[in-house]
Amino acid sequence: MHILIIGGGGREHCLAWKIAQSPLVDQVFVAPGNAGMGHVAECVDIGVEQFSDLADFAQKEHIDLTVVGPEAPLAGGIADYFMGRGLPIFGPQKDAARLEGSKVFTKRLAKKYGIPTAKGVEFSDQDYEQAKDYIGRLDEGSYPKVLKADGLAAGKGVIIAHTKQEALQCLDDFFIKKVFGDAAQRMIIEDFLDGYEVSLLCLYDGNTVLPMDLAQDYKKIYDGDQGPNTGGMGSYSPVPLVSRSIKEKILRDIVYPTCRGLQSEGIQYRGVLYAGIMVCGQNPHLLEYNVRFGDPETQAILPRLEEDIVPYLIACSKGTLDQKSMRWEPKKGVCVIIASKGYPQSASKGDPIKGLEHFNGDPDLMVFHSGTKNTGEGLVTHGGRVLGVVGKAETFKAARKKVYASIDKIRFSGMQYRKDIAARAEESGI
Ligand code: AMP
Ligand code: GLY
């Protein structure tokens, strides 16, 4: 088989690495890929939004399945386009991808089907004065409030306002200054939920839901969840903090009703259904849905999958998933992202990266590239998130030790990473 993966980050490197191990697969292509993937895949210089070029390539290379990594092409209708040309694709169509592409869509769905989520009010940019009044009438005791741009905003469209002043500022940014452009034509103002976050990624083919092991990611740049949000600074899997009964509750109260809701609305969903959950006490609430594999959750989850992933991806894309569960290694997975100088406000490029030669030999130690580039001077930084180092071991303590010891050997100017990834999981003693 020939597989094409669309995207160019750490998630796609990890997918390529896992898919290349399949005995069913002869060749993996990644468009556009990155500098680290050469050992498992051939990179093709086509952008993720160039649907017709991607489909031409898929046709020419007899691609048996195209696997979409990022959200933007899904929200833009890549699955519809490929299916229209008779090309098999893994990822939901445009109407289903609204689960990630529109927070208003998801909030309405949650309300209609009784899915627990933060209480929210929606406004359109025509309702600027009403939104201002609404914020004006909130007493200070009701803060923090969470303001969310409706559309895709590269993970930056969610603002936690601690005061009326901050909320009004954010409203102006969304509706007057248009800092997120059309992504903030509509917004939601919702209650703040206090708890801990967990990601539940499921394969869903429109009939069968197949949950993966839980993961947790770290969105803030600095240790102790300080500083601005990023694309994700690390992850780990499984999540000892979340009991089996809470996972069952997430499925029963959130994921299954969502699937039934989609069916009732006549929306067919095929792909990864990723629920971002806030667990408050014993009660999970839906924060958001993503319609794809998470980055960097994927890098902590997939190395623990004891089975070939390819039959799952094919069955999911065809609507023939019939497995009841996936088999996971008991080993713990930890992924630490190394970012470049200035991230997340900016991203230094062109800094030479040294020390990756140490990553040979240990099958439980991997490095997945994101923003890297090969030049005449060797490998250099080429983006905000640069590398993800993943370790597996019997305990979180050993997995963390493995990861951090190998990061000590990597060097590039201005490299930054969090030192506390999976620290809470380690405290659990497992
Ligand atoms: P979202 O894109 O909706 O997942 O939001 C991004 C991040 O903002 C989440 O991962 C949470 O850390 C935070 N967040 C979103 N909604 C809320 C909420 N209602 N209460 C507290 N934190 C939230
Ligand atoms: N880890 C969060 C995301 O993939 O959106």
Oligomer: single chain
Largest sheet: 5 strands, parallel
Distance between the termini: 39 Å
Low-confidence sequence ranges: none
The level of helicity is 25-40%
**CATH-wise, what's the superfamily of the largest domain?**
ATP-grasp fold, B domain
Task: Count all strands and give the number.
Answer: 23
The neighbouring-strand order within the major sheet is 3-2-1-4-5
Query: Treating each run of at least 4 consecutive H or I residues as one helix, how many helices?
Result: 13
Protein described:
The chain has helices at residues 10-20, 51-60, 71-75, 78-84, 94-101, 103-112, 128-137, 164-175, 244-264, 297-301, 310-318, 396-407, 423-427; strands at residues 2-7, 27-32, 42-43, 65-68, 89-90, 120-124, 145-149, 158-161, 186-191, 196-204, 209-211, 216-217, 220-222, 226-229, 234-237, 271-280, 283-290, 332-339, 349-352, 365-369, 372-375, 378-382, 385-393. By secondary structure, the protein is α+β, with helices and mostly antiparallel strands. The strands form 6 sheets. The protein has a 5-stranded parallel beta sheet. A 5-stranded antiparallel beta sheet has the order 12-15-18-23-20. Strand 16 and strand 17 (283-290) form a beta hairpin. Helix 7 packs antiparallel against helix 8 (164-175). It is globular, with a radius of gyration of 21 Å. The protein starts with a strand and ends with a helix.
